[in-house]
Amino acid sequence: MATARTSYVCLACRASYKQPYDRTRQRSCPRCAEPLIHAGSAFAPPRRRDTAAWRTLTVLLNAGVGFHKSCCGGPGYRPRTLREVRERMTYAERSGEPVAKALVRHNIP
After folding, report:
1. What confidence tens digit (pLDDT) does each residue in 8-65 have?
2. 7 and 18 Cβ atoms separated by less than 8 Å
3. Which of 51, 66, 68, 80 is the most buried (most CB within 10 A)?
4. Predicted structure pTM score
């Protein structure tokens, strides 16, 4: 039986690697030796030259938002532009809602 593979991301190199999941092992980037961030099995990396998408991804991953599959589909809504991130961060600040929860909110009230 094959082991499940999941995505790990290096934000400094703008690179993504599919590797077997192991909670106990700390993975490091083969290019820069920085620690990799576990992004999840439903992660689709943006192109390396798309700086805006990588900045958006940096905010999401640093806030603790992952791209893990749910029982009925993909990871759910994730903002794709910096504008959507700013809107949700502003909403979180005004409402007192945790940032990670506000970032995955599809519609802002």
Report:
1. 999 999 999 999 988 899 999 999 999 999 999 889 999 999 999 999 999 999 999 9
2. yes
3. 66
4. 0.85
Extract long-range pairs of 5-9: CB within 8 Å, 24+ residues apart: 5/41, 6/38, 6/39, 6/40, 6/41, 6/43, 7/38, 7/39, 7/40, 7/41, 7/43, 7/45, 7/67, 8/36, 8/37, 8/38, 8/39, 9/36, 9/37, 9/39, 9/43, 9/45, 9/57, 9/61
User: pLDDT digit string (tens) for 68-85?
Assistant: 886 666 677 889 999 999
